[in-house]
Write a structure and sequence with these properties.
This protein is α+β, with helices and mostly antiparallel strands. Helices cover 28% and strands 36% of the residues.
């Protein structure tokens, strides 16, 4: 039955990740900061990440996106990426959303 519990948590992450907003400074949000945001959300949802890798930073432009790869320990329904999208740029703040993507789901 542990696999069912993991699947249920995966669905929770999908629902909550889409509305998460985080802030950074108005220059590009670094790949390291993005990776930290993903790791924090995974931990809050009770997941253990084996790895998270963002290929680059997020430009401070509304609509800019970056897709980061993740490996979640023991996940039955595999979330393998997070799409990060800049939703607002206001002065020195960049707000962005994190949307988990299930394996095989298009970006």
């Amino acid at each position: 039955m542990p696999a069912r519990g993991v699947t249920g948590r995966s669905l929770t992450v999908v629902a909550l990740g889409a509305v998460l907003l985080t802030t950074g400074c108005s220059r590009e949000v670094s790949a390291g900061d993005l990776e930290g945001s993903i790791a924090e959300q995974a931990e809050l949802q009770g997941f253990e990440l084996e790895s998270v890798d963002c290929p680059g930073g997020l430009p401070p432009e509304v609509g800019a996106t970056v897709v980061c790869e993740v490996v979640i320990t023991g996940a039955a329904q595999s979330i393998d990426r997070f799409k990060i999208e800049a939703t607002e740029v206001d002065g020195d703040q960049v707000r962005y959303s994190l949307t988990p993507l299930v394996e095989g789901m298009s970006e």
